[in-house]
């Protein structure tokens, strides 16, 4: 219980569980700005740019963004498409919990035919490997993972942003749709888990990374940051790594917002972009 951040009295509902204070949540309404004018002044250029595009697109009753996913280094046997609902982008603007479409888009920043700097890295598909899919299709998923690992055993590392839905009080886990990052060091036979929540885990070595504030749902943003920081040397000296305190939380969150929206603007929406899908 201590590792989960709650007391016995709170678990027995004898005391309230404290949560972080939050401003009233804004609901998504199609055709309305993601941010009002006063808040838009506080965000970056790419977020300005997308909101302008969105206002025009939503006027035509469009409600999603399409992107091409290449089979190269992904958990796919053929090219595929990613569909990002405007609602998922809205959540990013609100610093709300991130859906799998946005996590997949973040992974796409690192891969694709033109990403020569990441030829040593492969990614598993977070839409296809997650707790509900594993529970529903365990045998099929296991076989697919083994095939993928065999096909990519020449890579330095393989990453999987994993969405786990788990409630297990006996093991002192209390999660609900929580994002973590699995990093597989192929040549080192090592698996690292980067988790923005504090808990005890007898199976993995704890790495000192920045953690989300209790009561928030920002785990996806932290996974983005961990993945952005992921260097090859993770697997050489992971026992001595300290990735905490590299930047203030607000700066990290704003950087994630701006970088992801820049990728969507330049590589998905722009006809010259690598992942552009025509209307």
UniProtKB/TrEMBL annotation:
Cited InterPro entries: Papain-like_cys_pep_sf (IPR038765)
Protein name: Ubiquitin-like protease family profile domain-containing protein
Species for this entry: Leersia perrieri
Domain of life: Eukaryota
């Amino acid at each position: 219980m201590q590792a989960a951040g709650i007391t016995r009295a709170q678990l027995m509902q004898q005391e309230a569980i404290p949560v972080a204070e939050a401003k009233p949540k804004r609901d998504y309404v199609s055709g309305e700005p993601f941010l009002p004018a006063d808040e838009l002044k506080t965000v970056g250029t790419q977020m300005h740019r997308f909101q302008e595009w969105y206002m025009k697109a939503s006027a035509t009753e469009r409600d999603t963004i399409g992107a091409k996913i290449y089979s190269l280094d992904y958990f796919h046997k053929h090219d595929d498409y990613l569909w990002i609902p405007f609602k998922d982008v809205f959540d990013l603007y609100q610093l709300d919990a991130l859906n799998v479409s946005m996590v997949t888009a973040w992974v796409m920043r690192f891969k694709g035919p033109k990403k020569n700097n990441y030829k040593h890295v492969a990614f598993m598909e977070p839409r296809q490997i997650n707790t509900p899919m594993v529970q529903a299709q365990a045998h099929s998923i296991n076989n697919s993972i083994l095939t993928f690992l065999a096909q990519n055993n020449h890579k330095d590392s393989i990453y999987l942003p994993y969405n786990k839905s788990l409630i297990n009080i006996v093991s002192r886990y209390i999660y609900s749709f929580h994002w973590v990052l699995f990093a597989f060091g192929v040549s080192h036979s090592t698996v690292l888990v980067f988790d923005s929540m504090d808990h005890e885990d007898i199976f993995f070595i704890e790495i000192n990374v920045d953690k989300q504030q209790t009561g928030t749902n920002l785990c996806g943003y932290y996974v983005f940051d961990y993945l952005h920081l992921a260097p090859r040397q993770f697997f050489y000296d992971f026992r001595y790594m300290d990735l905490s305190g590299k930047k203030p939380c607000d700066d990290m969150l704003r950087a994630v917002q701006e970088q992801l929206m820049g990728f969507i603007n330049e590589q998905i929406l722009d006809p010259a972009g690598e992942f552009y899908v025509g209307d």
